[in-house]
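hey so i finally got around to running both of the ones u sent me last week. sorry it took forever, my laptop kept dying halfway thru and i had to restart like 3 times lol. anyway pasting them below in the order u listed, first the sequence line then the structure token line for each. didnt double check formatting much so if smth looks off just lmk and ill redo it

first one:
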Amino acid sequence: MLGRRAVASIQDEAKVNQVVVDTSTPYFEETVKEIALGHDIAISCIGIGSGTASMSEDQMIEVEVNMLGKYARGCKAAGIEVFELLTAVGINEAHAASRIKGFRVIGKKYKTVLEVGFEKLAVFQPGMIVGNVHTPGWLTVLTRFIPDSIGWGNIRQEQVAQAFVAHLEKGVTMQNESVVSYGNKEMKMLISETRGK
């Protein structure tokens, strides 16, 4: 697990090797490559949790696009061909040309990973994530009635994590296209199908 700081709650977890990295170094991509060697898959949850309204587009791009791009290219250079990306609901590469700053940045993020050319890319696009420190509680109260089929409804943070694992356990072997996407409905179905195996 690569991160800008160690997560104290999993410090003693035997199955997790935490590596604290300086993401601002010009050698970040090479660092990722060295650490990723010998691994089969990579997951990216890189992104800005909150505060985007006060950030400039360049500041957002530095994290959402540039840092992620270095991470993804480093993984690819290490031989990883299965990549899971956490992004935003409804986003695709066409949003890179959006007039709305947030959509434009996340569209560029999505496009950047597509251009790396992983053999198998799974894109997770949750609606409102319940239990995430960056999601206001009042907002999930309003969105809890939105059907999963629309995409903007609620999904618990642990369900997103379970969907990552479920895709690796079942989805990857059945993935016939280079890119698959999971919204709330598809993530919950994937979890259910994997538990039922």
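and the second one:
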Amino acid sequence: MKQSIYSFKQLLSGGLLCCAILLAAYIFQAFFPEMYVDAFSSSIHLLMWLTLFVGALLWTFRVKGERIGISEVIDWQFIAAFVLITADQIYIIMPKEIHLDIASVLSGYTIPVLVVVGVMVAGTIKVSIALYQKLADERRQTILQAQKIQQLMDDPPTEQKGVSFLRMLIENRSIAQLSVKDYLLLVEGCHLIDPDLFAWLRRQSCQLTPRDIVLCVLIRMCKTKGEILSIFCISDGTYRTMKSRVRKRLGIGEEDLEIFLQNELK
């Protein structure tokens, strides 16, 4: 069974509070009828009881589990009082003929008017709160999505990092700043463009460092010597040393590394 948003204890206590306010308003009118002799005085006292009644309704129909104290109810009472005072001032400046027609209604039907107007004001406030919370939730979701997208851009998943590093090779950008971990991700990205090289290395059980593998991939990508020097940020002498070390680890002796990798690698 779906749990109700309002508990029985909450509705009972809030309902009793609303009834107590209505009863107090009725007793006040019964014992002090001279205070309801005209429309002006009736509207002033009706405003007082409306403010209390609206606060009681808001406390009664608060969301279950929502912590709402006296201060929150008083805040909404002030808002309700502002709305009602504005309406009362509009009523006051109306022609006297209208006052005479409405005076009997306010005096004779105080409790029904109190109930109807109080429910309308409390309902308007509840709807306004719901709309505000909905807009706040949507704004919060938008902010969270923007933060998540920014986080993905700042710290992309491993697969995306590998592709990002691979793009650096394609665009001839320097990889000198890459860490050992970044080199491993770059090697994983190189699998995408040269699976034959990695298959051959597995068959031959060649033990190459990630830096050596990247050099082989660059050569098989037909990168020029100048582009390779720029990518690694190394000198010509360091480049010759790297090539010599790779030839030794591949077991190809003095054979030209470029020709071997591009033409004879099977």
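quick thing i noticed on the 2nd:
The chain has twelve helices and no strands.
anyway thats it, ttyl
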